[in-house]
């Protein structure tokens, strides 16, 4: 199952790779993505494309850099998909306009950048759901509340397929106490084959809003964290701040 099957296609062409130009770097292209459509900004002003674009960039970075599965940004994904559909309709209209070649090319570039960003976000999440499928199904630490229904279904299908593969290839040849992945999965913590994220790793983050005192050290030390600060800190100390949008990973 790929990301299109799991989440619904965000588009059908030019989405797997970030579009590029001969004179721009990828990061610059992402930053400029919503400037390319210039004259079309007013038409879609209610959708606040620049804000959604920046939020999706931040969500993608957080998801890539956080060791755990973060909360699914369903409302943001829906708005971005609606934005892409609006752009598709406008591109179709410009294709019928003999003077719309330049505008069509600019808007197509903007659409491709946004669609690539959306698919990157969904693929990143799907990879983490696959990695921690057993953890999701076990609902340890309330993980199921942070995934979408499609991601939960994917985790279940993946885990059952993996279990069948292990059973056919390996488990049937092992002693009774070790020949069932499900038995060990449903057993106590010492017996369960459940991979968990390492939240003790150090990460870099930037503070978006004042956070007050947070733990900072092995002996109970704390640090005063203010907006604009850049920190190198163990993820477990700022996990709740990442989830709450007070800091973002860099």
The CATH top-level class label of the largest domain: Mainly Alpha
The chain-level structural class is mainly alpha
The best one-word shape is: flat
* Strand neighbour order, sheet with most strands: 4-1-5
End-to-end gap: 30 Å
Helical segment tally? 9
Number of DSSP strand runs: 5
Order of helical and strand elements? HHHHHHHHEEEEHE
Q: What does the average pLDDT come to?
A: 79
Oligomer: single chain
Computed Rg: 22 Å
Amount of beta strand: 5-15%
User: What count of structural domains?
Assistant: 3
Family: Belongs to the GINS4/SLD5 family.
Subcellular location: Nucleus
Keywords: DNA replication, Nucleus
GO biological process, one term: DNA-templated DNA replication
How would you explain this protein's 3D organization?
The protein has about 250 residues and is mainly alpha-helical. It folds into three domains: about 5-130, Up-down Bundle (Methane Monooxygenase Hydroxylase, Chain G, domain 1), CATH 1.20.58; about 135-185, no CATH class; about 200-250, Ribosomal Protein L9, domain 1 (3-Layer(aba) Sandwich). Helix content is about 50%, strand content about 10%. The chain contains nine helices and five strands. It has helices at about 5, 25-30, 50-65, 75-95, 100-130, 135-140, 150-170, 180-185, 235-245; strands spanning about 200-205, 210-215, 220-225, 230-235, 245-250. It has a three-stranded antiparallel sheet with strand order 4-1-5. Helix 3 runs parallel beside helix 5 and helix 5 (about 100-130) crosses helix 7. The protein is flat and about 75 Å long. The protein starts with a helix and ends with a strand.
């Amino acid at each position: 199952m790929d990301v299109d099957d799991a989440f619904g296609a965000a588009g059908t062409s030019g989405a797997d790779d970030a579009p590029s130009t001969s004179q721009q770097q990828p990061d610059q292209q992402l930053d400029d993505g919503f400037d390319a459509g210039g004259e079309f900004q007013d038409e879609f002003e209610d959708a606040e494309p620049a804000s959604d674009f920046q939020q999706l960039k931040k969500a993608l970075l957080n998801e890539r850099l956080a060791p755990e599965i973060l909360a699914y940004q369903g409302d943001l994904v829906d708005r971005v998909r609606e934005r892409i559909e609006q752009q598709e309709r406008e591109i179709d209209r410009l294709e019928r306009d003999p003077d719309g070649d330049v505008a069509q090319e600019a808007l197509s570039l903007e659409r491709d950048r946004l669609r690539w960003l959306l698919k990157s976000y969904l693929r990143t999440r799907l990879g983490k759901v696959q990695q921690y499928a057993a953890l999701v199904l076990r609902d340890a630490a309330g993980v199921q509340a942070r995934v979408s229904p499609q991601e939960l279904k994917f985790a279940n299908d993946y885990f059952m397929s993996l279990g069948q593969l292990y059973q056919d290839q390996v488990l049937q040849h092992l002693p009774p106490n070790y020949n069932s992945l499900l038995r060990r999965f449903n057993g106590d913590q010492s017996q369960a084959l459940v991979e968990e994220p390492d939240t003790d790793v150090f990460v870099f983050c930037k503070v978006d809003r004042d956070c007050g005192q947070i733990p900072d050290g092995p002996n109970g030390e704390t640090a005063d964290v203010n907006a604009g600060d850049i920190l190198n800190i163990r993820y477990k100390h700022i996990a709740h701040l990442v989830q709450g949008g007070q800091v973002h990973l860099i």
